[in-house]
Amino acid sequence: MPDRRQPDSPTDDNPFAAPPEGRPDQPWQPRDGGGGGNGESPKDSDGQRGPTRWDPTDPIQRRARYALLAGMWGFFFGIFGIPSVGLLLGALALYWGISALRGKPVPATADGAPAAPAGGLDALGPAARPQRTAAVSGLVTASLAILLAMSSYALQLAYKDFYVCRDDALTKSAELQCNTLLPNNLVGEVLKVRP
């Protein structure tokens, strides 16, 4: 098989390449991932700073991440049949997501100085986008987790006689007789005790 050579990459990406013609040597400096050479975040074409890193000390950003994680796990617990944990995590994710999205501005100081710029997600500028996405995703998954938990509890309440009969049955035949308490629809087919 013939050797397929890749086209030569430009020397701009090679830190070990010689400088271009007519340009003096420069001392080596470590590059950061963002493209700014002096440790600052990269700047957009408008001259504004780009997204900053996630700050774990900011409670608003933390709540946005917590909302996403709690909502996701609450949804999983609801799917796998543990509605009490799903309901708890869904409620926490709902609280954290709403408080992260509200992002109240920093209040004015007592000496009458003007208030600082808006706090929370609004103060982050372009960096607020991933945090806002996390908070909204947390709200969506929290709503689904709460919906699953509530539907599970509603199902148990609606078919309480069946569940009591099934739990009190001492033999398999007595447990099978509890199927007469179920309706002849899809829900009854799902809940039916199998022989």
Automatic annotation (TrEMBL):
Region described as Disordered: spans on this chain: 1-58
Domain of life of the native organism: Bacteria
Species whose genome carries this gene: Streptomyces avidinii
Protein name: Integral membrane protein
Keywords (A to Z) from UniProt: Membrane, Transmembrane, Transmembrane helix
Transmembrane intervals: 66-98, 134-155
